[in-house]
Amino acid sequence: MSAQELAALDKAIAKGKWFYILVVGVLFWGCMTSVVVATIHYLTSDTSFWGELARALCIYPAAGLLFGWFDWVRLQRKRDRLRAEYYQPHNE
Fold it and tell me: What is the pLDDT of residues 42-92, one digit of tens each?
């Protein structure tokens, strides 16, 4: 399992830091969080869904830059840890 996970991490990292931050952080996390937050606000208050969505799309994709960057760092650390475990000589 470690070899497959390591290959998947290498593939994700090979796409590049900014690609990962923009796609995972801004587009995926930021936009999906905006829709969820706007829906919750719409259901729990008397505000318009589209107004809430417009406001959320200003806040959460910007925060997604930080989320993407922190996740990128986490991804690299995980890859480095798996490489150290996978390529470490086994003492038998």
Answer: 999 999 999 999 999 999 999 999 999 999 999 999 999 988 887 776 655
Q: What pLDDT does 1 receive?
A: 54
Distance CA 27, CA 60 (A): 10
Which residues lie closer than 8 Å to 34 by C-beta, 6 or more apart? 53, 56, 57, 59, 60, 61
- What lies within 8 Å, CB to CB, of 51 at 6+ separation is none
Residue 57 burial (CB count, 10 A): 17
Q: Are 68 and 21 in contact (CB under 8 A)?
A: yes
Burial code (b: 16+ CB inside 10 Å, e: under 16) for 33-54 equals bbeebbeebbeeeeeeeeebbe
How far apart (Å, rounded) are the C-alpha atoms in residues 91 and 51? 62
Q: Helix, strand, or coil here: 1?
A: coil
